[in-house]
C-alpha cells in the first residue's frame, strides 16, 4: 500500500497564486458574458472570438517553452487559466485540449516536429485541439482500440473510427492513437500502439471524414472516420509501438488541468447561490436565512475548499517531478464531485428559475456533469485508488 506520507516534502502556495494571470483572464472573460455562451449553446457553435482573444493574450501557449514562442509557465499557472474561465461563467473546453495534447509533442516529438509545429501553435497560426483516442467499441479500454496504421514505404495507411473527438472540425492538427501491431502479435496489450500528429488540413476529404455529434453540451464533439488515409511516416511521434506510454505520460497533467475547470465551476455555483440566497425574499425574509438553503451551499463550499487543497498538492508534486498519479486522480474525483454538489445546491437555491436559460445555471449544470464521466470516470478513479493506492485486487 502506498502512503501519502511517503511523498517527500513539497512546498505549495496556499494564497491566491498567479494574481496577474487571474486578473488578465477575468478581464477577457468580462467581454464574453453569459449571453455569449448562451448564444453559442443555442447555435451549437464554436467560440471562435473567445479562442482568438485567449490566443492573442498568449494564454493558450502557457505550457509551450519560451524557446518555441510560448510562455513556459508551470502546470499550475495553466490550470489557473482554466479555473478562472469557468469561475467567470465561461467554458474552457475549446482551449484546454491544446494545452495538454501539445505536451506529447513537446515531451516525445523529434526536434524537427517541435520546431515545425510548436512555434506556430504558440503564435495561434495552428490549432492542435483534436485528440483521437476513444472508439465506439473499446471506450476506456484503450488497448483494444481497432484503428490500424499500417506502414507502406514512407507512409502509414490508417483505417478505423474515433468517437467523442471534440473540436475536430475546428482543429488543424490531430493527435491520433492507432494500433501499428495487431493485438494478437504483442506480448503485452499495452504494446503495439503508436501516436501520430496528423495534418487535418490535408487529411479531410482524402481519407478522413468528420461528422458532428449532437450532445447535451456544446463541446463541438464529433466522430471521425479513416478510410485508407495516407499520412507521412514523419507524422509518427517517438518510436513505433510506444504510443500508449506517450499518451499515458500526459494523463496526470490532463487530470490536473481539467480538475481546475471543475474547481472553477464549483466556485461559480457557490458564489451564484450565495448571491441569490441573500437577494431572494420569500415569506418576508431572504431565503438564505433558511438552513435548508444554507446547509447545501455551506457543504458545497467545504467540498470545494477540500478539492482545491488536493489540486494544489497534485500540481506541486507534479512540478517537483515526483510521482503524482494518486493526487492527480484524487483531484479529478474530488473537484468533479464538488462541482456537481455545488451545482445541485445552486439549482435548488434558485428553484424554478434555475431552469431559465438566462440565469446560465442549467447550462453550467450540464457542463459540470461531464467531468464525472470524462476524460476519466469517477468509477475508474476509485478503481485506481483501490488497486494502486490501497493494495486491493484488480477489478477489471
Rg over alpha carbons: 22 Å
- What's the shape? globular
Strand proportion: 5-15%
> The CATH topology of the largest domain, please?
Butyryl-CoA Dehydrogenase, subunit A, domain 3
- CATH H-tier superfamily of the largest domain: Butyryl-CoA Dehydrogenase, subunit A, domain 3
SSE class? alpha+beta
Share of residues in helices: 40-55%
Which CATH class of the largest domain applies here? Answer: Mainly Alpha
Describe this structure as you would to a colleague:
With 396 residues, the chain is of the alpha+beta class. It has three domains: 4-127, Acyl-CoA dehydrogenase/oxidase, N-terminal domain (Butyryl-Coa Dehydrogenase, subunit A, domain 1); 130-242, Butyryl-CoA Dehydrogenase, subunit A, domain 2 (Beta Barrel); 248-389, Butyryl-CoA Dehydrogenase, subunit A, domain 3 (Up-down Bundle), CATH 1.20.140. It has 13 helices and ten strands. It has helices at 19-30, 34-43, 48-56, 75-87, 93-108, 111-122, 200-203, 243-249, 251-279, 291-319, 325-350, 361-369, 378-389; strands at residues 128-132, 148-152, 155-163, 173-179, 193-199, 208-212, 222-232, 236-237, 281-282, 285-286. Strands 1-4-5-8 form a four-stranded mixed beta sheet. Strands 2-3-7-6 form a four-stranded antiparallel beta sheet, with no helix packed on it. The protein has a two-stranded antiparallel sheet with strand order 9-10. Strand 2 and strand 3 (155-163) form a beta hairpin. The longest helix has 29 residues, at 251-279. The radius of gyration is 22 Å and the shape is globular. The two termini are 19 Å apart. The model has no long low-confidence stretch (mean pLDDT 94).
Amino acid at each position: 500500500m502506498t502512503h501519502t506520507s511517503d511523498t517527500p516534502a513539497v512546498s505549495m502556495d496556499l494564497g491566491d497564486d498567479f494574481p496577474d494571470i487571474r486578473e488578465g483572464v477575468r478581464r477577457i472573460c468580462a467581454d464574453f458574458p453569459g449571453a455569449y455562451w448562451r448564444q453559442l449553446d443555442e447555435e451549437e457553435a464554436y467560440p471562435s472570438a473567445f479562442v482568438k482573444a485567449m490566443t492573442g493574450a498568449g494564454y493558450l501557449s502557457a505550457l509551450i517553452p519560451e524557446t518555441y514562442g510560448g510562455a513556459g509557465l508551470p502546470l499550475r499557472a495553466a490550470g489557473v487559466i482554466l479555473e478562472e474561465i469557468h469561475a467567470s461563467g465561461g467554458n474552457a473546453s475549446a482551449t484546454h485540449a491544446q494545452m495538454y495534447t501539445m505536451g506529447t509533442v513537446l515531451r516525445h516529438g523529434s526536434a524537427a516536429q517541435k520546431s515545425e509545429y510548436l512555434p506556430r501553435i504558440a503564435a495561434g497560426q495552428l490549432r492542435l485541439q483534436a485528440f483521437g483516442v476513444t472508439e465506439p467499441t473499446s471506450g476506456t479500454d484503450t488497448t483494444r482500440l481497432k484503428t490500424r496504421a499500417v506502414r507502406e514505404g514512407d507512409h502509414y495507411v490508417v483505417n478505423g473510427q474515433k468517437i467523442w473527438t471534440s473540436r475536430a472540425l475546428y482543429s488543424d492538427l490531430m493527435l491520433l492513437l492507432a494500433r501499428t501491431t495487431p493485438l494478437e502479435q504483442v506480448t503485452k496489450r499495452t504494446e503495439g500502439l503508436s501516436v501520430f500528429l496528423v495534418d487535418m488540413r490535408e487529411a479531410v476529404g482524402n481519407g478522413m471524414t468528420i461528422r458532428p455529434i449532437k450532445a447535451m453540451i456544446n463541446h463541438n464533439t464529433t466522430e471521425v472516420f479513416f478510410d485508407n488515409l495516407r499520412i507521412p511516416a514523419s507524422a509518427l511521434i517517438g518510436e513505433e509501438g510506444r504510443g500508449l506510454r506517450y499518451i499515458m505520460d500526459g494523463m496526470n497533467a490532463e487530470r490536473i488541468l481539467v480538475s481546475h475547470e471543475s474547481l472553477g465551476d464549483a466556485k461559480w455555483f457557490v458564489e451564484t447561490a450565495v448571491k441569490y440566497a441573500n437577494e431572494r425574499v420569500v415569506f418576508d425574509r431572504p431565503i438564505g436565512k433558511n438552513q435548508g438553503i444554507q446547509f447545501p451551499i455551506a457543504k458545497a463550499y467545504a467540498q470545494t475548499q477540500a478539492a482545491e487543497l488536493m489540486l494544489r498538492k497534485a500540481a506541486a508534486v507534479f512540478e517537483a517531478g515526483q510521482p503524482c498519479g494518486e493526487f492527480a486522480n484524487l483531484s479529478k474525483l474530488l473537484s468533479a464531485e464538488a462541482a456537481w454538489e455545488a451545482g445541485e445546491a445552486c439549482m435548488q437555491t434558485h428553484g424554478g428559475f434555475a431552469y431559465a436559460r438566462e440565469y446560465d445555471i442549467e447550462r453550467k449544470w450540464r457542463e459540470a456533469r461531464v467531468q464525472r464521466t470524462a476524460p476519466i470516470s469517477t468509477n475508474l478513479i476509485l478503481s485506481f485508488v483501490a488497486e494502486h493506492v490501497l493494495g486491493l485486487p484488480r477489478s477489471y
